[in-house]
Amino acid sequence: MDAFYASVEQRDNPEYRGKPIVVGGSPEGRGGVVAAASYEARKFGVRSAMPSKKAQQLCPHVIFVRPRFPVYREVSQKIREIFHRYTDLIEPLSLDEAYLDVTQDKPGIGSAIAIAQQIKQAIREELQLTASAGISVNKFVAKIASDMQKPDGLTFIAPDQVEDFMEKLPVEKFFGVGRVTAEKMKRMNLHTGADLKRLTENDLVQHFGKTGRFYYRIVRGIDEREVQPHRETKSLGAEDTFAFDLTTVDEMNAELDKIAVTVTERLKKYNLKGRTVTLKIKYSDFRQITRNQSFPHPVGDLETIAGAAKQLLLKTEPDDVKIRLLGITLSNFNEEPPGESRQLTLF
């Protein structure tokens, strides 16, 4: 999806259309962080994960909008319903992004390009939003292609174009290459896929660890990862970044109660319980910590989850701090504690 959160806000609020807006953060107080920026704001250099103070410096007339995550989740579900008209092999990456395997498409269209065009048209007509699609023979290349002509783009990389495409790709576009790794590569005079291709697999592993094997294969257009529609859920949670710092334990506990409600609703939706509750805290200086508690048996009720999060908070001595973000996550789903046996069932 194109600038998903910001585009939903512009769709639902005509006064935001054509104007630079950011979702998340605040121009007052300590500000917070940009969750999404409209394309009008991006022209000024505003990007997601940027401190909102920086966003306002770059674009003084930017409009700050409070996130409405329940609305974004609802829209995301409608987008998935459109996907399911064409295939059930859908691997969601987030609310606004997914892989689709259309090798065997439900309507029998037989053309990935035509399917992408129809999906984009349905999203535009039914949801008044735009999406960009990347089409190719594997996940990596399709993902890169989807970003090439945003917004409202469609890019097809044919099988015989893949290697040439990868050779010309800047190293910072490669999966797993963050800012630090990109800088290391450039110090080694590695600027493009073609530069990486000159190194042996052993060279890449020596310099970049196990990920070097991925670089070696992907620069040659080899990515055999399948679209996985039923990936095992390892954890489930929710968090919130606040417009103003929380400075009292009462404020923090009240927000933890709200977050715990969201977490328990999601657990019920997926029929999950977990043994480990993790509390995430980000302070006003961007320092971040996590604390966790494990139970003898899986839990999923609001009282236990909220209570555990509050106890974990107290252990961090929260009286003289300023908190910008809180989160609660459950993990170790339906697992028995070590040392306990479980009877197997035959079907």
TrEMBL record:
The active site is at 97. Its EC number is 2.7.7.7. Pfam families: IMS (PF00817), IMS_C (PF11799), IMS_HHH_1 (PF21999). The keyword Ribonucleoprotein does not apply. One of its GO terms (cellular component) is cytosol. Its cofactor is Mg(2+). It catalyses: DNA(n) + a 2'-deoxyribonucleoside 5'-triphosphate = DNA(n+1) + diphosphate. Residues 1-178 form the UmuC domain. It is an enzyme of class 2 (transferase). GO terms for biological process: DNA repair; DNA-templated DNA replication; error-prone translesion synthesis; SOS response. One of its GO terms (molecular function) is DNA-directed DNA polymerase activity. The keyword Nucleus does not apply. Binds 2 magnesium ions per subunit. Gene3D superfamilies: 3.30.70.270, 3.40.1170.60, 5' to 3' exonuclease, C-terminal subdomain, DNA polymerase, Y-family, little finger domain. CDD domains: PolY_Pol_IV_kappa. It is found in: Cytoplasm. Keywords: Cytoplasm, DNA damage, DNA repair, DNA replication, DNA-binding, DNA-directed DNA polymerase, Magnesium, Metal-binding, Mutator protein, Nucleotidyltransferase, Transferase. Poorly processive, error-prone DNA polymerase involved in untargeted mutagenesis. Copies undamaged DNA at stalled replication forks, which arise in vivo from mismatched or misaligned primer ends. These misaligned primers can be extended by PolIV. Exhibits no 3'-5' exonuclease (proofreading) activity. May be involved in translesional synthesis, in conjunction with the beta clamp from PolIII. Belongs to the DNA polymerase type-Y family. Monomer. PANTHER family: DNA POLYMERASE KAPPA, DNA REPAIR POLYMERASE UMUC / TRANSFERASE FAMILY MEMBER. This is DNA polymerase IV. It comes from Chitinophaga cymbidii.
